[in-house]
Specification:
Strand order of the largest sheet: 2-1-3
Number of strands: 3
Structural class: alpha+beta
Order of helices and strands: EHHEHE
Shape: elongated
Distance between the termini: 58 Å
Largest sheet: 3 strands, antiparallel
Strand content: 15-25%
């Protein structure tokens, strides 16, 4: 027994649509970019930030350290710029990464926001 839906072995007819002359298709629009911004706090270590960025974004230790180092003086760092749906996913992954087990006072994950990129 076939799972093709054509048990009667009827000829399969396909219909090809041709483009109408004179109608020009517009190129696909690019999605607007969004920044995922990691916010600083005093409840997470450099090691936690480096581990989290490596795990969630695939960044190497050097790139992760540079981003972690920017958190202290600026209070925030852009960790990725992408389309809105992926930015929301990455923000949610940061929020779900878990607490920093290196510090007893740490109660949860770091905070992040998404912002439209200029």
């Amino acid at each position: 027994m076939s799972n093709s839906g054509n048990e009667a072995n009827l000829p399969i007819q396909t219909e090809l649509r041709s483009r109408q002359p004179g109608i020009k298709e517009s190129p696909p629009r690019r999605l607007p970019p969004y920044h995922v911004v990691l916010l600083n706090d005093n409840d997470h270590t450099y090691d936690y930030v480096i581990e989290m960025l490596g795990t969630l974004f695939g960044y190497n230790t050097t790139k992760s350290f540079v981003m972690a180092d920017q958190l202290n003086p600026h209070g925030r760092v852009i960790v990725v710029t992408t389309h809105k749906e992926l930015a929301e996913l990455k923000r949610d992954q940061i929020h779900a990464f878990g607490r920093d087990r290196r510090l007893d006072r740490c109660a949860g994950s770091m905070s992040a926001v998404i912002e439209p990129a200029p």
